[in-house]
Amino acid sequence: MSEAGQCWEPGSPERLFALSEDGGPARYKGPLDLVTLIVTRSVPDSGLQPEQAAVLRMCDYPLSVAEISAYLSLPVSALLVLLNDLVAQEHVEARPPVPAAALPDIQLLEAVMHGLQNL
Amino acid sequence: MDYRISDAYAGPRSEDYLPASAATAVKVVIVGGFGVGKTTLVGSVSEIRPLTTEETMTQAGVGVDDLAGVEEKTETTVAMDFGRISINERLVLYLFGTPGQQRFWFLWNGLFEGALGAVVLVDTRRLEVSYEVVGHLEERSVPFVVAINTFPGAPSYPMRDLRSAMDLPDEVPMVECDARDRGSCRDTLMALMRYLHSLTTAPPERQ
Protein backbone atom coordinates (compact mmCIF):
# COMPACT_ATOMS: atom_id res chain seq x y z
CA MET A 1 0.00 0.00 0.00
CA SER A 2 2.67 2.44 0.95
CA GLU A 3 4.53 1.60 -2.26
CA ALA A 4 1.58 2.69 -4.34
CA GLY A 5 2.35 6.38 -4.10
CA GLN A 6 6.02 6.11 -4.91
CA CYS A 7 5.69 7.14 -8.50
CA TRP A 8 8.07 10.01 -7.95
CA GLU A 9 11.77 9.64 -7.36
CA PRO A 10 13.52 10.88 -4.24
CA GLY A 11 15.03 14.28 -4.87
CA SER A 12 18.52 15.15 -5.98
CA PRO A 13 20.63 12.15 -5.02
CA GLU A 14 23.69 13.68 -6.63
CA ARG A 15 23.60 16.56 -4.21
CA LEU A 16 23.16 14.25 -1.25
CA PHE A 17 26.12 12.12 -2.21
CA ALA A 18 28.21 15.21 -2.79
CA LEU A 19 27.64 16.09 0.83
CA SER A 20 28.37 12.66 2.25
CA GLU A 21 31.82 11.72 3.39
CA ASP A 22 32.70 8.91 1.01
CA GLY A 23 29.99 9.02 -1.59
CA GLY A 24 28.87 5.54 -0.69
CA PRO A 25 25.89 4.45 1.32
CA ALA A 26 25.99 5.95 4.77
CA ARG A 27 27.16 3.72 7.57
CA TYR A 28 23.88 3.08 9.17
CA LYS A 29 23.51 2.65 12.90
CA GLY A 30 19.77 2.46 12.99
CA PRO A 31 17.59 4.90 11.17
CA LEU A 32 17.43 8.46 12.39
CA ASP A 33 13.93 9.86 12.76
CA LEU A 34 12.71 13.44 12.36
CA VAL A 35 12.49 13.59 16.15
CA THR A 36 15.70 11.77 17.03
CA LEU A 37 17.52 14.12 19.41
CA ILE A 38 21.11 14.93 18.46
CA VAL A 39 23.70 15.97 21.05
CA THR A 40 27.31 16.92 20.32
CA ARG A 41 29.95 14.65 21.81
CA SER A 42 33.16 16.16 20.41
CA VAL A 43 34.57 19.50 19.34
CA PRO A 44 34.47 20.21 15.61
CA ASP A 45 37.77 19.34 13.97
CA SER A 46 39.17 20.75 10.77
CA GLY A 47 38.39 17.60 8.80
CA LEU A 48 34.68 18.17 8.97
CA GLN A 49 32.57 19.78 6.31
CA PRO A 50 31.08 23.19 7.16
CA GLU A 51 27.60 21.75 7.52
CA GLN A 52 28.84 19.03 9.86
CA ALA A 53 30.80 21.53 11.94
CA ALA A 54 27.65 23.66 12.12
CA VAL A 55 25.73 20.67 13.49
CA LEU A 56 28.35 20.14 16.20
CA ARG A 57 28.29 23.81 17.16
CA MET A 58 24.51 23.83 17.26
CA CYS A 59 23.93 20.68 19.28
CA ASP A 60 25.63 21.44 22.59
CA TYR A 61 22.15 20.88 23.91
CA PRO A 62 19.75 18.39 22.34
CA LEU A 63 17.98 19.34 19.11
CA SER A 64 15.79 17.16 16.92
CA VAL A 65 16.75 16.26 13.38
CA ALA A 66 13.82 18.39 12.20
CA GLU A 67 15.07 21.45 14.09
CA ILE A 68 18.62 21.08 12.77
CA SER A 69 17.21 20.78 9.26
CA ALA A 70 15.23 23.98 9.75
CA TYR A 71 18.11 25.96 11.22
CA LEU A 72 20.56 24.82 8.54
CA SER A 73 17.98 25.10 5.74
CA LEU A 74 18.95 21.62 4.62
CA PRO A 75 16.42 19.09 3.35
CA VAL A 76 16.01 16.31 5.90
CA SER A 77 17.26 13.69 3.45
CA ALA A 78 20.50 15.61 2.92
CA LEU A 79 20.95 16.26 6.62
CA LEU A 80 20.48 12.58 7.44
CA VAL A 81 23.48 11.70 5.28
CA LEU A 82 25.63 14.15 7.27
CA LEU A 83 24.23 12.99 10.59
CA ASN A 84 24.76 9.32 9.84
CA ASP A 85 28.45 10.08 9.32
CA LEU A 86 28.61 12.11 12.53
CA VAL A 87 26.92 9.33 14.49
CA ALA A 88 29.21 6.68 12.99
CA GLN A 89 32.27 8.75 13.94
CA GLU A 90 30.82 9.34 17.41
CA HIS A 91 30.92 13.09 17.00
CA VAL A 92 27.29 13.18 18.08
CA GLU A 93 25.01 11.09 20.21
CA ALA A 94 21.59 10.18 18.79
CA ARG A 95 18.79 9.77 21.30
CA PRO A 96 16.10 7.74 19.56
CA PRO A 97 12.41 8.58 19.82
CA VAL A 98 9.93 6.43 21.64
CA PRO A 99 9.88 3.26 19.54
CA ALA A 100 7.04 2.74 17.13
CA ALA A 101 4.33 0.52 18.49
CA ALA A 102 0.85 -0.36 17.39
CA LEU A 103 -0.49 1.34 20.46
CA PRO A 104 1.36 3.78 22.67
CA ASP A 105 2.34 3.03 26.21
CA ILE A 106 -0.18 4.13 28.84
CA GLN A 107 2.43 5.76 31.04
CA LEU A 108 3.73 7.71 28.07
CA LEU A 109 0.23 8.95 27.22
CA GLU A 110 -0.38 9.93 30.81
CA ALA A 111 2.89 11.84 30.88
CA VAL A 112 1.91 13.68 27.69
CA MET A 113 -1.55 14.49 29.06
CA HIS A 114 -0.02 15.79 32.24
CA GLY A 115 2.38 17.94 30.26
CA LEU A 116 -0.40 19.33 28.06
CA GLN A 117 -2.50 20.19 31.10
CA ASN A 118 0.33 22.41 32.26
CA LEU A 119 0.35 24.38 29.02
CA MET B 1 17.74 38.45 16.05
CA ASP B 2 21.24 37.98 17.29
CA TYR B 3 22.81 35.66 14.78
CA ARG B 4 26.41 36.25 14.07
CA ILE B 5 27.34 37.52 10.66
CA SER B 6 30.49 35.39 10.69
CA ASP B 7 28.32 32.31 11.04
CA ALA B 8 26.68 31.14 7.86
CA TYR B 9 23.92 29.44 9.80
CA ALA B 10 21.45 31.12 12.08
CA GLY B 11 21.20 28.61 14.89
CA PRO B 12 18.61 28.42 17.61
CA ARG B 13 18.29 31.19 20.14
CA SER B 14 19.42 30.18 23.62
CA GLU B 15 15.81 29.91 24.80
CA ASP B 16 15.03 27.55 21.95
CA TYR B 17 17.24 24.78 23.28
CA LEU B 18 16.00 21.76 25.14
CA PRO B 19 17.44 20.94 28.53
CA ALA B 20 20.42 18.57 28.46
CA SER B 21 18.21 16.01 30.17
CA ALA B 22 15.87 15.70 27.17
CA ALA B 23 16.11 12.00 26.47
CA THR B 24 13.45 11.14 23.99
CA ALA B 25 10.75 12.59 21.78
CA VAL B 26 7.31 11.71 20.49
CA LYS B 27 5.43 13.23 17.59
CA VAL B 28 1.91 14.08 16.59
CA VAL B 29 1.04 14.94 13.00
CA ILE B 30 -1.44 17.69 12.14
CA VAL B 31 -2.91 16.91 8.73
CA GLY B 32 -5.07 19.15 6.61
CA GLY B 33 -5.46 20.99 3.36
CA PHE B 34 -3.63 24.17 2.45
CA GLY B 35 -4.74 27.16 4.46
CA VAL B 36 -6.75 25.15 6.95
CA GLY B 37 -4.72 26.47 9.88
CA LYS B 38 -2.13 23.78 10.58
CA THR B 39 0.69 26.22 11.19
CA THR B 40 -1.60 28.44 13.25
CA LEU B 41 -2.47 25.48 15.45
CA VAL B 42 1.17 24.48 15.82
CA GLY B 43 2.13 28.06 16.65
CA SER B 44 -0.60 28.36 19.25
CA VAL B 45 0.77 25.59 21.43
CA SER B 46 4.45 25.47 20.49
CA GLU B 47 7.10 26.75 22.90
CA ILE B 48 9.28 27.72 19.94
CA ARG B 49 8.26 29.78 16.95
CA PRO B 50 7.15 27.27 14.33
CA LEU B 51 10.09 26.15 12.22
CA THR B 52 10.05 25.00 8.63
CA THR B 53 11.80 22.00 7.25
CA GLU B 54 11.90 21.48 3.52
CA GLU B 55 12.23 18.55 1.22
CA THR B 56 12.70 18.47 -2.52
CA MET B 57 10.38 16.48 -4.68
CA THR B 58 11.54 15.52 -8.13
CA GLN B 59 8.89 14.65 -10.64
CA ALA B 60 8.71 14.22 -14.32
CA GLY B 61 7.04 17.37 -15.56
CA VAL B 62 3.97 15.69 -16.95
CA GLY B 63 0.41 16.78 -16.72
CA VAL B 64 0.57 19.49 -14.12
CA ASP B 65 3.09 21.92 -15.51
CA ASP B 66 3.17 22.37 -19.25
CA LEU B 67 6.82 22.87 -19.95
CA ALA B 68 6.30 22.87 -23.72
CA GLY B 69 8.99 20.57 -24.95
CA VAL B 70 11.26 20.79 -21.94
CA GLU B 71 11.34 17.15 -20.90
CA GLU B 72 13.40 17.67 -17.81
CA LYS B 73 12.34 16.73 -14.38
CA THR B 74 10.93 19.48 -12.27
CA GLU B 75 11.77 20.04 -8.65
CA THR B 76 9.22 21.17 -6.17
CA THR B 77 10.14 22.21 -2.69
CA VAL B 78 7.61 21.18 -0.13
CA ALA B 79 7.69 22.74 3.30
CA MET B 80 6.48 21.35 6.57
CA ASP B 81 6.05 23.51 9.64
CA PHE B 82 6.51 22.13 13.09
CA GLY B 83 6.63 23.11 16.72
CA ARG B 84 7.60 21.69 20.06
CA ILE B 85 6.17 21.21 23.54
CA SER B 86 8.41 20.08 26.41
CA ILE B 87 6.33 17.56 28.32
CA ASN B 88 8.79 17.18 31.17
CA GLU B 89 12.56 17.26 31.73
CA ARG B 90 13.04 14.10 29.69
CA LEU B 91 10.20 13.97 27.18
CA VAL B 92 9.49 16.28 24.24
CA LEU B 93 6.45 16.36 21.97
CA TYR B 94 6.85 17.56 18.38
CA LEU B 95 3.91 18.66 16.25
CA PHE B 96 4.26 18.44 12.49
CA GLY B 97 1.80 20.10 10.15
CA THR B 98 1.65 18.28 6.84
CA PRO B 99 -0.44 18.72 3.70
CA GLY B 100 -3.20 16.22 3.20
CA GLN B 101 -1.92 14.76 -0.06
CA GLN B 102 -0.37 11.41 0.54
CA ARG B 103 2.39 11.99 -2.01
CA PHE B 104 3.91 14.55 0.37
CA TRP B 105 4.04 12.09 3.22
CA PHE B 106 6.69 10.01 1.49
CA LEU B 107 9.00 13.00 1.36
CA TRP B 108 9.54 12.89 5.07
CA ASN B 109 10.37 9.30 5.49
CA GLY B 110 8.89 7.93 8.64
CA LEU B 111 6.75 10.97 9.39
CA PHE B 112 3.94 8.74 10.55
CA GLU B 113 6.00 5.83 11.81
CA GLY B 114 6.14 6.07 15.55
CA ALA B 115 3.75 9.02 15.61
CA LEU B 116 1.39 8.80 18.56
CA GLY B 117 -1.45 9.81 16.30
CA ALA B 118 -2.80 12.56 14.11
CA VAL B 119 -5.17 15.50 14.23
CA VAL B 120 -7.11 16.01 11.01
CA LEU B 121 -7.83 19.73 10.85
CA VAL B 122 -10.91 20.48 8.80
CA ASP B 123 -12.30 23.62 7.21
CA THR B 124 -16.04 23.06 6.74
CA ARG B 125 -15.90 25.20 3.60
CA ARG B 126 -13.59 22.63 2.01
CA LEU B 127 -14.73 19.40 3.51
CA GLU B 128 -13.76 17.38 0.45
CA VAL B 129 -10.05 17.78 1.24
CA SER B 130 -10.48 15.71 4.35
CA TYR B 131 -11.99 12.64 2.66
CA GLU B 132 -8.66 11.69 1.18
CA VAL B 133 -6.80 12.39 4.42
CA VAL B 134 -9.10 10.23 6.51
CA GLY B 135 -8.80 7.37 4.02
CA HIS B 136 -5.02 7.50 4.02
CA LEU B 137 -4.78 7.55 7.80
CA GLU B 138 -7.14 4.59 8.09
CA GLU B 139 -5.06 2.71 5.52
CA ARG B 140 -1.96 3.30 7.59
CA SER B 141 -3.68 2.50 10.88
CA VAL B 142 -2.75 5.90 12.29
CA PRO B 143 -5.21 6.78 15.07
CA PHE B 144 -6.65 10.26 14.64
CA VAL B 145 -9.19 12.75 15.87
CA VAL B 146 -10.97 15.26 13.66
CA ALA B 147 -10.81 18.92 14.64
CA ILE B 148 -13.20 21.34 12.97
CA ASN B 149 -11.41 24.67 12.74
CA THR B 150 -14.00 27.25 13.62
CA PHE B 151 -13.20 30.04 11.20
CA PRO B 152 -15.16 33.21 11.72
CA GLY B 153 -17.86 33.26 9.08
CA ALA B 154 -17.49 29.57 8.25
CA PRO B 155 -20.79 27.76 8.11
CA SER B 156 -21.54 25.81 11.24
CA TYR B 157 -22.95 22.32 10.81
CA PRO B 158 -24.06 19.85 13.45
CA MET B 159 -21.22 17.43 14.25
CA ARG B 160 -23.51 14.55 13.35
CA ASP B 161 -23.92 15.89 9.82
CA LEU B 162 -20.19 16.45 9.44
CA ARG B 163 -19.49 12.95 10.68
CA SER B 164 -21.77 11.41 8.15
CA ALA B 165 -20.55 13.71 5.37
CA MET B 166 -16.98 12.60 6.13
CA ASP B 167 -18.07 8.99 6.59
CA LEU B 168 -16.26 8.88 9.92
CA PRO B 169 -16.59 5.87 12.18
CA ASP B 170 -18.52 6.58 15.38
CA GLU B 171 -15.54 6.00 17.63
CA VAL B 172 -13.37 8.67 16.02
CA PRO B 173 -13.64 11.77 18.23
CA MET B 174 -14.65 15.06 16.65
CA VAL B 175 -13.93 18.35 18.34
CA GLU B 176 -14.23 22.00 17.51
CA CYS B 177 -10.97 23.88 17.53
CA ASP B 178 -10.02 27.51 17.18
CA ALA B 179 -6.51 27.16 15.79
CA ARG B 180 -5.62 30.64 17.04
CA ASP B 181 -6.46 29.80 20.63
CA ARG B 182 -3.90 28.05 22.79
CA GLY B 183 -6.43 26.51 25.14
CA SER B 184 -8.56 25.24 22.29
CA CYS B 185 -5.55 23.65 20.57
CA ARG B 186 -4.41 22.10 23.83
CA ASP B 187 -7.90 20.63 24.29
CA THR B 188 -7.71 19.17 20.78
CA LEU B 189 -4.42 17.48 21.59
CA MET B 190 -5.90 16.27 24.86
CA ALA B 191 -8.82 14.77 22.93
CA LEU B 192 -6.32 12.84 20.82
CA MET B 193 -4.45 11.62 23.92
CA ARG B 194 -7.67 10.53 25.61
CA TYR B 195 -8.70 8.69 22.47
CA LEU B 196 -5.32 6.94 22.31
CA HIS B 197 -5.66 6.15 26.00
CA SER B 198 -9.06 4.56 25.40
CA LEU B 199 -7.69 2.53 22.47
CA THR B 200 -4.83 1.31 24.62
CA THR B 201 -6.88 0.38 27.64
CA ALA B 202 -9.93 -1.08 25.91
CA PRO B 203 -9.58 -4.35 24.04
CA PRO B 204 -10.55 -3.95 20.38
CA GLU B 205 -14.16 -4.90 19.94
CA ARG B 206 -14.05 -5.61 16.27
CA GLN B 207 -11.86 -7.50 13.88
SSE layout:
The complex is a heterodimer of chains A (119) and B (207).
Chain A: E1 9-10, H1 13-19, E2 37-40, H2 50-58, E3 63-64, H3 65-72, H4 76-88, E4 92-95, H5 106-117
Antiparallel strand pairs in A: 2-3, 2-4
Helix pairs in contact in A: 1-4
Chain B: E1 24-32, H1 38-45, E2 51-60, E3 73-86, E4 91-99, H2 102-105, E5 117-122, H3 128-139, E6 144-149, H4 159-166, E7 174-177, H5 182-201
Parallel strand pairs in B: 1-4, 1-5, 5-6, 6-7
Antiparallel strand pairs in B: 2-3, 3-4
Helix pairs in contact in B: 1-5
Secondary-structure class of chain A: mainly alpha
According to DSSP, the number of beta strands of chain B is: 7
CATH superfamily of chain B: P-loop containing nucleotide triphosphate hydrolases
CATH classification class of chain B: Alpha Beta
SSE class of chain B: alpha/beta
Protein name (chain A): DUF742 domain-containing protein
InterPro entries (chain A): DUF742
Pfam family, one (chain A): DUF742
Protein name (chain B): ATP-binding protein
Explain what you see:
Chain A: Pfam families: DUF742 (PF05331). Chain A: This is DUF742 domain-containing protein. The complex is a heterodimer of chains A (119) and B (207). Chain A is mainly alpha-helical and 119 residues long. Chain A has one domain: Arc Repressor Mutant, subunit A. Helices cover 41% and strands 10% of the residues of chain A. Chain A is built from five helices and four strands. Chain A has helices spanning 13-19, 50-58, 65-72, 76-88, 106-117; strands at 9-10, 37-40, 63-64, 92-95. In chain A, strands 3-2-4 form a three-stranded antiparallel beta sheet. In chain A, helix 1 runs parallel beside helix 4 (76-88). The N and C termini of chain A lie far apart (38 Å). Chain B is an alpha/beta fold. Chain B has a single domain (22-52, 84-201), classed as 3-Layer(aba) Sandwich (Rossmann fold). Helix content of chain B is 25%, strand content 28%. A seven-stranded mixed beta sheet of chain B has the order 2-3-4-1-5-6-7, with helices on both faces. In chain B, a hairpin with a 4-residue loop joins strand 3 (73-86) and strand 4. In chain B, helix 1 packs across helix 5. Mean pLDDT of chain B is 85; it is low at 1-7. The interface between A and B is large, with 58 and 66 residues. Strand 1 of chain A pairs antiparallel with strand 2 (51-60) of chain B.
